[in-house]
What does this fold into?
Amino acid sequence: MSEEIKNEIVDKLKKEIQPKDYSNELNSLSEKLDSLHEASHKHEHAENTHNDSMKHEHAVHSWDKTCSDCGENNPDYSDEQYQCVDCDEPMGTKDEATKAKACPHCSSDEGAYNEEEGYTF
It folds into this structure.
């Protein structure tokens, strides 16, 4: 090829292959991200407001004296718990202790007792 034709082709290609201006597209994406970010903050604020008005659900078993999440007293706890024969930790109500295959604290399967009722199983 002659040098003249090469230069002509190169000039044509340079004119045709101009770098694309992405600034409008970037601005549009940036605006979309900003609106999503704002919507996310509004949603989080709404959730926090909603959760504050809801009553906390305690993470407790009947034998737990307090909630492990918030430290408040367990409203379902009773001093009439059955205690493990081995470790003397509470195992729950009579029904729960009877159904338990093992102590939730020490894994003993020796049974439970309640001094008030004078019952051991």
The beta strands are 83-84, 112-114, 119-120. The chain has a mean pLDDT of 77.
